[in-house]
Amino acid sequence: MPSTPASINTLICIPTYNEAENIGPIVDAIFKVVPNVHLLIIDDSSPDGTGALADALAAEDERVHVLHRTEKQGLGKAYIAGFKWALERSYDQIFEMDADFSHQPRYLPAMIEALSTTHDVVIGSRYVPGGGTENWGLVRRAISRGGGVYARTILGMKVRDLTAGFIGWRRKVLENIELDHIEASGYVFQIEMKYRAHQLQYKILEIPITFPDRKVGQSKMTSDIAMEALTRVWKIRLK
Q: Rounded distance, CA 211 to CA 226, Å?
């Protein structure tokens, strides 16, 4: 088993919408690698019963918590709700992680270790040496890479995977970013959060990961969401 440097001061936030097939397996997979963490499942009233499954997991394991939201309001709003929940408690490290296994739990020990010792923000990155994607089509790869170059150029950042969603934050970063001022609610939320941390001069590290396409369930990413991210980058820059 990999080393487990984390303690119960680490919380992993997992937003869900129609992830009934994934939520049990991803919880089991995380605890096999890092058993000394807590999980917060943030469910947006999934019609497929994900919320009820999450409640059952929480009833069986005190490491699992559930935050129910009454409607689907976007990825960013879900994460901000999770971050605020974490900051009301004693967690020192707060992670973002998808439920669909595109973010593989095997990377968590290295990310937690880096966050515990040397850096303020740790990103599971597809676009640094050693990182990559699996089973992505040509168009999706082009949109993702091209959008990253576009955003980095406008925002003046060196982070190569600005849209990455597998991220660990030290508590102090989320306390100082002013979460109520984050306007983005879709995937551009990931860009805005990293930019705010960059503006505050926090130390950001990218750790290479392989990002496979989901095997179960339906992707939430669409071309409209990707295009919205590109148009909103300027608003972030000028804010």
A: 18
**Coil, strand or helix at 35:** coil
Structure tokens at 121: 């923000």
| Vertex 11 angle, CA 76 and 115, to 5° | 95
Q: Report the b/e string of 95-129 with b at 16+ CB within 10 A.
A: bbbbbbbbbbbebbbbbbbbbbeebbbbbbbbbbe
> What is the distance between the alpha carbons of residues 69 and 48, in angstroms, rounded to a whole number?
15
Pairing label, strands 121-125, 167-170: antiparallel
pLDDT at 225 over 80: no
Give me the residue label for tokens 């950001």.
204
Tens digits of residue pLDDT in 178-200:
999 998 777 789 999 999 999 99
